[in-house]
């Protein structure tokens, strides 16, 4: 008898189901309070199903392929983004290029484009030019508000999690997803290519500028690769939306008159 008890205890120790994370599998199904045998749900004329496990006792032993794929892609995205952030630190491997990359990223910031468009609109004397500039201004505002709203909703941090600067707070570019600079660069480049007559080298340079603006944000450690990719797609979507609801010259003149009147009243 003592030998059989020792063998029984040894089997219990070797049984994998006795490990703490699998203890719930050895427990009998829990019946809901007030079983029909106790007269609880008999008044309702039914018996509750007690064979379902409580949520805290469940363990996902076989995660789905979709979950594994998404987690793997996110891990690759974070790893590559951190490796490509060579200009993130002042004394990092990309320190000699940091100033140029920062200037390139600044060319895609919201403030230069907003103020530049307003100045050109103020100095423009043609109806066609004012029409294009008003629609460009509305496209920039749409891009700014949409990206800022998505960033507030997602609240994803950058690969190096740097605190936003003063210009980022002014432009409401405080989070990583999606990349505001990439979205703005694609939208502006598509807008200019569609409404300006440019030579082939200038058109190629404009495409290259939009791509490098997005890459510069990754090199500075501000955004992940997926943030920039989604920013490119979002900028193209903004351009398509603005083209589909293009404001004609008469509407643009009305908006200019309202804006001028409000400016005069404020002054």
UniProtKB/TrEMBL annotation:
Residues 132-243 form the Phosphatidic acid phosphatase type 2/haloperoxidase domain. InterPro entries: PAP2/HPO, PAP2/HPO_sf. Residues 1-54 are annotated as: Disordered. Keywords: Membrane, Transmembrane, Transmembrane helix. One of its GO terms (cellular component) is nuclear envelope. It comes from the Eukaryota. The chain crosses the membrane at residues 100-121, 133-154, 196-215. Pfam families: PAP2. GO terms for molecular function: sphingosine-1-phosphate phosphatase activity. SUPFAM superfamilies: Acid phosphatase/Vanadium-dependent haloperoxidase (SSF48317). This is Phospholipid phosphatase 7 (inactive). It comes from Seriola dumerili.
């Amino acid at each position: 008898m003592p030998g059989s008890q020792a063998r029984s205890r040894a089997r219990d120790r070797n049984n994998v189901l006795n490990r703490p994370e699998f203890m719930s599998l050895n427990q009998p199904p829990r019946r809901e309070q007030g079983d029909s045998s106790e007269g609880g749900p008999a008044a309702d004329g039914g018996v509750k199903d007690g064979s379902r496990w409580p949520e805290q006792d469940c363990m996902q032993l076989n995660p789905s392929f979709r979950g594994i794929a998404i987690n793997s892609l996110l891990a690759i995205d974070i790893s590559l983004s951190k490796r490509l952030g060579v200009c993130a630190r002042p004394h990092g491997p990309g320190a000699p290029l940091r100033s140029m990359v920062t200037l390139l990223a600044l060319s895609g910031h919201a403030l230069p484009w907003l103020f530049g468009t307003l100045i050109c609109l103020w100095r423009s004397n043609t109806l066609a030019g004012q029409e294009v500039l008003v629609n460009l201004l509305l496209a920039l505002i749409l891009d700014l508000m949409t990206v800022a709203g998505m960033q507030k909703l997602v609240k994803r941090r950058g690969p190096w999690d740097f605190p936003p600067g003063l210009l980022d707070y002014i432009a409401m570019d405080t989070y990583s997803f999606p990349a505001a600079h990439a979205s703005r660069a694609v939208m502006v480049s598509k807008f200019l290519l569609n409404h300006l007559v440019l030579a082939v080298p200038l058109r190629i340079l404009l495409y290259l500028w939009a791509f490098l603006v997005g890459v510069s944000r990754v090199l500075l450690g501000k955004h992940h690769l997926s943030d920039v990719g989604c920013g490119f797609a979002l900028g193209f979507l903004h351009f398509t939306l603005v083209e589909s609801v293009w404001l004609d010259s008469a509407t643009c003149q009305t908006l200019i008159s309202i804006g001028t009147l409000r400016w005069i009243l404020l002054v």
